[in-house]
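Protein modeling request. Please complete all fields; requests missing the sequence field cannot be processed.
Requester role: graduate student
Desired output: 3D structure, C-alpha cell encoding
Chains: 1
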Amino acid sequence: MMVNLHLREAIISHLSWASLFLGFHTLGLYVHNDVMLAFGPEKQILIEPIFSQWIQFAHGKTSYGFDVLLSSTSGPTFNAGRSIWLPGWLNAVNENSNSLFLTIGPGDFLVHHAIALGLHTTTLILVKGALDARGSKLMPDKKDFGYSFPCDGQG
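Delivered output (155 residues):
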C-alpha cells in the first residue's frame, strides 16, 4: 500500500528550482568576484547583508546604525532588557573582545548563500528519496507490505 501524496511533484519541483536558483546565483557571485579581483580593477559586488545586520541590531548590536528594539536607547525594550533578563547582555554583545555577535559583512553574505544552497540541495535529495520510494520497506513496516528477509523464518 503506497501513500499517495498529491503535492509530491510540486514539492520536489519547488525544491529543485530553489536549489538551481541558489546554485547559479551563488556561483555567479563567486565567479564574478574572483574574475574582477584577478583580471580587472577591484570592482567586486559587495552586498551588505542588511537583514542579518538588522536581526543582530534588534538583539542589541549597536554598530550598524538602526534604531529598533534592544538597540534603541529610548525604547521600553532597552530599559526592561537592562534589568529583567540577561543583565550585561548589551555590554557583552557590543564588546569587540568576544565573539558573541561578530560584525557581519559581504563575505558572510556569500558564505550564507553557499550554506543555503547546500541545505536546500540536501533537503531536495532527502525529500525526493522519501517521496519517490515505492513503499517504505523499512524494518517496522515490512510485514504490512508482505516483504521479509530469508533470515526472518516462517510467517
